[in-house]
Design a protein that fits this description.
Layout: H1 2-12, H2 16-23, E1 27-36, E2 42-53, E3 59-65, H3 71-87, E4 93-99, H4 108-121, E5 131-135, H5 141-155, H6 176-194, E6 203-207, H7 211-222, E7 226-232, E8 235-238, H8 245-253, E9 266-268, H9 270-274, E10 280-283, E11 302-304, H10 313-321, E12 325-327, H11 329-332, H12 335-349, H13 355-380, H14 384-403
Parallel strand pairs: 3-4, 3-5, 6-7, 6-10, 10-11, 11-12
Antiparallel strand pairs: 1-2, 2-4, 7-8, 8-9
The structure holds nicotinamide-adenine-dinucleotide (NAD).
Length: 406
């Protein structure tokens, strides 16, 4: 995060003082969370919440449950959220939260008590006008519902816009589930348009077949692109005439969430998928899959980053020297936070939008953001990744200048 921030900050030409303001998080909170486990013993977990910036508006960012979570990771992820929200021009700052725990080894009751305890510990940090959590690794609508309940009890009224990513009945938004994959598709089609690539003649490979990857594959297919390969943790599946995405989704849904054993395709490895000669490569699984070790073997004409941080900073130069167009994560996967913002807006106005309205507005936000970043990349003659950071840093820095400080 910092190496890319540094490069963009230099190009925007912000002052040293502004650099320090944007580099240091506004607030970092560490809490001890005692929780009674099912066996009656009390275990103390460590929880974090970092608000990187609230200059553009209330801070926004997920809560992750993972044994490896630590303050440094949460700080980097919080800053990422600031840049992501600024790139798509939604009035949010950036935040992130985490609890160091292994949810796979905990019962639902233990997780519930932990989440409620975390909510109480963060009562003076989070809030619909201050800092709005959302799901991240290890959390989902269930955890968001517990946060709404605990926060609402403390405030003596129902406050459902304290989080986004809630179940629909609690004020969640239509379209949120598919929003990130949909945004990835809009970003890919916008990039194809710039490269004068006809979607109906284009091929794509998608790594990761979870929330982001499967919706991106489905929607790319719907827009005429031949998706020749998909993959998940069980490996890759290749068919040069195109994978039947609808069949792959229903196979996964009836097969404990994995593609293991999926027919109608040749089995390849995840590494092989990355180096296929396709037009569009969508890494949508996890971070650091494209590194300096395999970047030279990438043959795709463009990479659209569905995952957060799939390309390591050390691979950037190799990818750029090959002339591959990279639509960076903070732009390509911002469709999710955009519809989260729509969820919060709907909660505030007490009205539900139709799916059609949400999709149209989200597509417009993504398309406008892509055009803004593309124009900036032309003006500064830099890759899209740097251009996205330039757009974001410039927006936050100039807002700060108008607001002023002490
Ligand atoms: P998910 O858990 O729904 O899906 C992850 C997929 O990746 C699964 O199919 C899994 O089998 C596969 N996978 C895991 N390890 C793999 C490996 N080593 N090789 C190949 N495939 C592997 O997660 P998701 O919500 O789709 O998120 C994927 C990425 O997108 C993450 O980096 C996440 O941070 C990012 N992201 C998600 C959202 C969102 O709204 N869900 C928003 C922005 C960014």
């Amino acid at each position: 995060m910092m190496s890319r921030f540094d490069a963009a900050a230099k190009l925007v030409g912000i002052s040293d003082e502004m650099y320090d303001i944007l580099k240091v998080p506004a607030r970092q909170v560490i809490v001890g969370l005692p929780v009674t486990m099912d066996n009656g013993a009390i275990k103390v977990f460590e929880g974090y919440r970092v608000i990187h910036s609230n200059i553009l508006g209330p801070a926004k960012g997920g809560i992750r449950l993972d044994p490896a979570v630590n303050l440094d990771e949460v700080r980097a992820l919080a800053a990422w959220m600031t840049w992501k929200c600024a790139v798509v021009d939604i009035p949010y700052g950036g935040a992130k939260g985490g609890i160091a725990c292994n949810p796979r080894e905990m019962s639902a009751g233990e997780i519930e008590r932990l989440i409620r305890q975390y909510t109480v510990a963060m009562l003076d940090v989070i809030g619909p006008d201050r800092d709005i959590p959302a799901p991240d690794m290890g959390t989902g609508p269930r955890e968001m519902a517990w946060i709404v309940d605990e926060y609402s009890k403390a405030k003596g009224m129902t406050v459902n816009n304290v989080v986004t990513g809630k179940p629909l009945v609690l004020g969640g938004s239509l379209g949120r589930t598919e929003a990130t994959g949909r945004g990835v598709t809009v970003a890919a089609l916008s990039a194809m348009d710039k490269l004068r690539m006809n979607p109906y003649r284009a091929t794509a490979a998608v790594q990761g077949f979870g929330n982001v990857g499967s919706f991106a594959a489905e929607l790319l297919h719907e827009r005429g692109v031949t998706v020749v390969a998909v993959s998940d943790i069980s490996g890759g599946y290749y068919n040069k005439s195109g994978i039947d995405i609808t069949a792959a989704v229903s196979y996964r849904n009836s097969n404990k969430g994995t593609l293991e054993g999926f027919g109608g395709a040749e089995k390849i490895s995840n590494e092989e998928l990355l180096s296929l000669a396709v037009d569009v490569l969508v890494p949508a699984a996890k971070e650091d899959v494209i590194t300096e070790d395999n970047a030279a073997s990438i043959q795709a004409k463009m990479i659209v980053e569905g995952a957060n941080g799939p390309t390591s900073a050390s691979a950037d130069e190799i990818i750029n020297s090959k002339g591959i167009l990279v639509v960076p994560d903070i732009l390509a996967n911002a469709g999710g936070v955009t519809v989260s913002y729509f969820e919060w807006v709907q909660n505030r106005i007490g009205y539900k939008w139709t799916l059609d309205r949400i999709n149209r507005r989200a597509d417009r936000v993504m398309k406008d953001a892509f055009d803004r970043v593309f124009d900036t990349s032309q003006r500064y003659q830099v890759p899209l990744r740097l251009a996205a950071y330039i757009v974001a840093i410039d927006k936050v820095a100039s807002t700060y200048k108008y607001r002023g400080g002490y």
